[in-house]
Design goal:
185 residues, alpha/beta, rod-shaped
Amino acid sequence: MSKSHPPVHQIELRVAELGQLFNSMDPTPFHHRDLDTDAEVFIESWALEFPQDSHFRIIVHIGRMPAEDPTPVVAEAIHNYFEYKSMLMKRNRRVLLLEGRTSLLIGLCFLALCLLGADYLASYAFSPYLRVLKESLTIGGWVAMWRPMQIFLYEWWPLVRRQRIYRNLGHASVHVTPGKTQFSS
């Protein structure tokens, strides 16, 4: 039984000249520079449309091609940029899970105190005010568990998905070809 390979999706980007691919405010050499915001958003928005295990082929059409073949520089810049974004997503997930564990510890302690207080008030809950206070403590304790539950049930997995997409973009096959002079990204 053979294992099927993940799909390879093609993303095409058109720029008038090589410099438009990079952030003009970043003074570092091309292969270490940030991508232009428009180029980054364009590539990310297309990549996020596909499954997280997808592989990518990025084709950059440059209207005014430089004299020297820019493919190695563009490929290295794109790979470096999205590897960096993958590392940031991994760090963000680690920080989020640490926050989740801290929130869980705080929430459990608060819940325990609220439930103990509610149980104590149950023996004196002859008055409607004390019954309301007892129920309020019970509800308040469970509400305190909302944030850790949100983190562990919903917030971490979109970060994992983005990290995988960025990692796969960091290993994308990059091709540079001459293109029309009009800029459209």
